[in-house]
């Protein structure tokens, strides 16, 4: 019997009824071999054959000379950040020493940039397929990494293959799969096998044709190949299937009628020792070692070799590297179902000890303890709580799941529940699950708590809603806590700091400054330095908004000094975000970029992923100030992607506002409308943000589409607030003249004068900031038509790095110039600047309103009629270097761009040219590129 079974196993190599699906996967891996990247998602229920298709696909890749990194995810992956992707890449064949560091890294967010660079370098030498089966169990940081790496490596020959079942819903891996499909990546859905395919599969397993008795019984498996194969294999093993004259037929009684009974009969076909081995191994929800299962059975590993041979011959267990696993988790679960309660409890208690000894995830230990009775559950709750706090920085959704699991174990009336609730509220909010956080917190508050516990819970709720951008609700929770005189001073300092930031984004500047001052003083007195740092950054925000730029810088500089000296939680507040913002407003753009560079590096070291969208936002602002619009857009796009991946939707709002304004400047109004619509979807959920990010973005687009009257209606409140809140002009001095243009063209001279007065007052309060003096001159010159004011604005803007502000001043000076020759020169300079900056809307306006001169035409690079001629100068530069064989990272270094900008350019290039990857781009450039002699003669 074992020989016959082994023979059957060796025959099970073909695939039936999957020709279409296999063709899709083979094309995908062949595309990688030919230099094209991409992503394919395979969806289907458990046992439907996804794993087999993935194996065939990776075998095909290997035959084509493509490198392979493959792994199946397991349910326990969720508590070990980056384990799914890192483990897959550690199996990379041929091996890649450049990613060996993944074994030792602590799997924080900072690894993603390094990982992307390593994979790009590898793929530049050899195409790569990364295949992850059971992707629904992927851990959260792996899901985040994949979400970033799929588009980042789209131009490289890296093919991603994922297989997942559509349940359970809501896991990070499942959400990623849904997103990849929604984003338009290739999707294959597996259905049940038809009758012909079932016949072929049965015949292959048996090694002979089958008659209708076999097919009738197999029909009860609903075309599920795993169940069909297990059924026929079990019948063969138990002697209930006989072959005569080359035809297999079913004989006997008590034939299996369900998958459970199929597995039950399969077990009865094995020796009692093999059954005992399998039942013990079934408590592991992952691949297991021989030593591990030997400890459960309290025997020496060598004594299990016979049983292991029997179980693998029956294809219940299969090798998995140096370990073993069940052929499918459905089989494991069916075997596990045969354990009685007492035996299962004992095995889980032993498995917890094995997991500890092997250094497995604490969550795995906890899961075993939860099944060992009340004492084990208590210990498990502690482990789950500690694990949640540990993984929270890298995997907030996973952390929320763990702590909610712990609360569920305790039950609603357990005395030990309350300390967990405050942490749970914060973690749930970080994962974007506000309704659950609110309900959980309010339920606990109704239970009657001591002052400290209640304050901690209200603090957790305030932080939760502040993180989610629900700032008014955050203020309400902080108010409730601060009203209690018995709140400890350390907690009070944190509450003041949270309320300060929430009040700022609720447009209560005076209250925000008062709370920021209280947080600073209370925090220093109570030794709660993180609260002091956060309070000071709130005061910096307020001062910036009010146009007190030196104060904004001083508060942020003081906060940074405390954080650098104290470290710990204070450093996690990243005050350099606001220090760089103040430096940029003071025209110290080089210093701001250095501050952001240092802050981002520190953020990567600390693993504080929450701050990443903010670094992108502020860096985008510096690029925009310099007129580097492509760079600014790429930074903002990357920031939005990270914010959505982290479910930090509040941080996506200002980034979408930035993208809206840039798209208008670049003359791409449909794209601007798409960004604005996305922003509106976020703010419709109750998220609040600074009007300079939301209202101004909407008005800029309205002015471009519907004219100044529509924009003025949106901006009315911003105009009226300008004397007290001139931050828009502080952030973008060119906005002063733009505000005057909008109001004047809409016939509202009072508001035009208000904008001029705000700009002049801001300049007078900050006499050392040249761009603000230039902005005031520009705004007043537009209102009064004074050519000397406009000339002064031009000369002042020349002394700043703000090129587009200079171009706007040049445009207005040219329009009002009394000297025609001078006007023509100013217009030519403005056109040259906006053309170089890719400010297409300004270029078209200049050429139309001033009647030329047009920007000088560049010598053609590509032959006439080439599709490459539609590329922008920036895209053309990237395309030429990619065609020369440079990686994205090398292109970025050569052109002094960020990697995000190069990725963004390539995506746009591929879309414009309707090509799939670098190879096609290189071939197109080679075909259509003019040599130097041809360019001179053109």
From TrEMBL:
Coiled coil: none
Record domain HTH luxR-type: where: 864-929
PROSITE patterns noted in UniProt: HTH_LUXR_2
Signal peptide location: none
Protein known as: LuxR family transcriptional regulator
Listed SUPFAM superfamilies: C-terminal effector domain of the bipartite response regulators, P-loop containing nucleoside triphosphate hydrolases, TPR-like
Keywords: ATP-binding, Nucleotide-binding
InterPro entries: AAA_16, P-loop_NTPase, Sig_transdc_resp-reg_C-effctor, TPR-like_helical_dom_sf, Tscrpt_reg_LuxR_C, WH-like_DNA-bd_sf
Record CDD domains: LuxR_C_like (cd06170)
């Amino acid at each position: 019997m074992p020989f016959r079974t082994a023979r059957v196993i060796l025959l099970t190599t073909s695939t039936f009824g999957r020709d279409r699906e296999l063709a899709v996967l083979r094309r995908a891996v062949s595309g990688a071999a030919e230099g094209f990247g991409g992503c394919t998602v395979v969806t289907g229920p458990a046992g439907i054959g996804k794993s087999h298709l993935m194996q065939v696909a990776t075998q095909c890749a290997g035959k084509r000379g493509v490198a392979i990194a493959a792994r199946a995810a397991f349910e326990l992956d969720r508590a070990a950040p980056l384990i799914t992707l890192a483990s897959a890449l550690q199996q990379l064949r041929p091996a890649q020493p450049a990613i060996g560091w993944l074994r030792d890294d602590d799997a924080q967010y900072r690894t993603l940039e390094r990982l992307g660079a390593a994979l790009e370098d590898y793929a530049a030498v050899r195409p790569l397929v990364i295949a992850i089966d059971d992707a629904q169990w992927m851990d959260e940081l792996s899901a985040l990494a994949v979400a970033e790496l799929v588009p980042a490596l789209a131009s490289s020959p890296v093919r991603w293959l994922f297989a997942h079942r559509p349940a359970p819903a809501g896991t990070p891996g499942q959400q990623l799969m849904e997103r990849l499909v929604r984003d338009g990546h290739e999707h294959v859905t597996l259905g049940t096998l038809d009758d012909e395919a079932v016949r072929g599969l049965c015949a292959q397993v048996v090694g002979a044709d089958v008659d209708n008795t076999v097919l009738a019984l197999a029909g009860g498996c609903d075309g599920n190949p795993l169940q069909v194969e297990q059924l026929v294999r079990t019948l063969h093993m138990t002697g209930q299937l006989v072959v005569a004259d080359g035809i297999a037929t079913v004989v006997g009684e008590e034939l299996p009628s369900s998958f459970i009974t199929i597995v039950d009969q399969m077990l009865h076909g094995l020796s009692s020792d093999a059954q005992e081995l399998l039942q013990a191994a079934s408590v592991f929800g992952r691949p297991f070692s021989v030593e591990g299962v030997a400890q459960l059975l309290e025997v020496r590993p060598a004594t299990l070799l016979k049983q292991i041979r029997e179980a693998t011959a029956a294809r219940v267990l299969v090798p998995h590297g140096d370990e073993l696993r069940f052929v499918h988790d459905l089989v494991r679960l069916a075997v596990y179902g045969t354990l009685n309660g007492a035996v299962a409890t004992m095995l889980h208690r032993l498995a917890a000890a094995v997991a500890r000894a092997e250094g497995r995830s604490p969550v795995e230990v906890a899961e075993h303890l939860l099944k060992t009775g009340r004492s084990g559950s208590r210990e498990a709750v502690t482990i789950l709580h500690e694990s949640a706090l540990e993984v929270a920085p890298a995997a907030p959704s996973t952390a929320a799941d763990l702590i909610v699991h712990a609360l569920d174990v305790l039950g609603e009336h357990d005395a030990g529940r309350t300390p967990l609730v405050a942490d749970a509220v914060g973690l749930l909010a970080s994962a974007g699950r506000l309704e659950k956080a609110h309900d959980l917190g309010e339920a606990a508050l109704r239970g009657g708590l001591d002052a400290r516990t209640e304050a901690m819970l209200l603090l957790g709720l305030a932080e939760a809603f502040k993180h989610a951008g629900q700032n008014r609700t955050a203020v309400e929770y902080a108010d409730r806590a601060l009203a209690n005189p018995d709140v400890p001073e350390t907690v009070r300092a944190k509450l003041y700091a949270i309320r300060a930031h929430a009040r700022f984004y609720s447009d209560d500047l005076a209250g925000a400054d008062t709370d920021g001052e209280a947080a600073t003083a209370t925090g220093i007195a109570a030794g709660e330095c993180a609260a002091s740092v956060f309070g000071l950054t709130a005061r910096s925000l307020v001062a910036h908004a009010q146009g007190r730029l030196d104060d904004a810088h001083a508060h942020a500089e003081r906060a940074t000094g405390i954080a650098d000296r104290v470290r710990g939680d204070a450093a996690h507040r990243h005050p350099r975000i606001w220090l760089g913002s103040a430096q940029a407003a003071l025209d110290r753009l080089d210093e701001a970029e250095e501050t952001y560079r240092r802050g981002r590096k520190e953020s990567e070291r600390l693993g504080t992923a929450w701050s990443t969208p903010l670094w992108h936002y502020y860096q985008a602002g510096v690029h925009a100030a310099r007129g580097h619009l492509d760079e600014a857009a790429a930074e903002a796009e990357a920031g939005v992607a990270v914010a959505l991946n982290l479910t930090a939707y509040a941080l996506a709002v200002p980034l979408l506002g930035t993208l809206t304004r840039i798209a208008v400047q670049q003359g791409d109004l449909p794209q601007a409308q798409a960004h604005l619509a996305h922003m509106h979807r976020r703010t419709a959920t109750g998220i609040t943000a600074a009007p300079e990010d939301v209202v101004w973005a909407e008005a800029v687009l309205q002015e471009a589409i519907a004219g100044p009257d529509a924009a003025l209606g949106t901006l009315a409140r911003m105009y009226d607030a300008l004397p007290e809140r001139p931050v828009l002009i502080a952030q973008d001095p060119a906005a002063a003249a733009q505000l005057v243009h909008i109001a004047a063209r809409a016939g509202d001279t009072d508001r035009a004068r208000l904008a001029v007065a705000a700009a002049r007052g801001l300049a007078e309060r900050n006499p050392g900031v040249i761009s603000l003096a230039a902005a005031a001159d520009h705004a007043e010159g537009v209102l009064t038509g004074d050519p000397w004011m406009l000339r002064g604005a031009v000369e002042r803007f020349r002394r700043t790095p703000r090129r587009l502000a200079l171009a706007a001043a040049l445009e207005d000076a040219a329009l009002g110039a009394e000297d025609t020759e001078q006007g023509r020169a100013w217009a030519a300079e403005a056109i040259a600047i906006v053309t170089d900056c890719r400010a297409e809307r300004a270029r078209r306006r200049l050429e139309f309103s001033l009647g030329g001169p047009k920007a000088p035409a560049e010598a053609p690079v590509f032959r006439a009629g080439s599709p490459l001629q539609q590329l922008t100068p920036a895209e053309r530069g990237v395309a030429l270097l990619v065609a020369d064989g440079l990686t994205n990272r090398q292109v970025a270094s050569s052109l002094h761009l960020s990697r995000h900008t190069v990725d963004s350019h390539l995506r746009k290039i591929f879309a414009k040219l309707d090509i799939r990857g670098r190879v096609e781009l290189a071939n197109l450039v080679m075909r259509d590129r003019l040599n130097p002699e041809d360019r001179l003669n053109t």
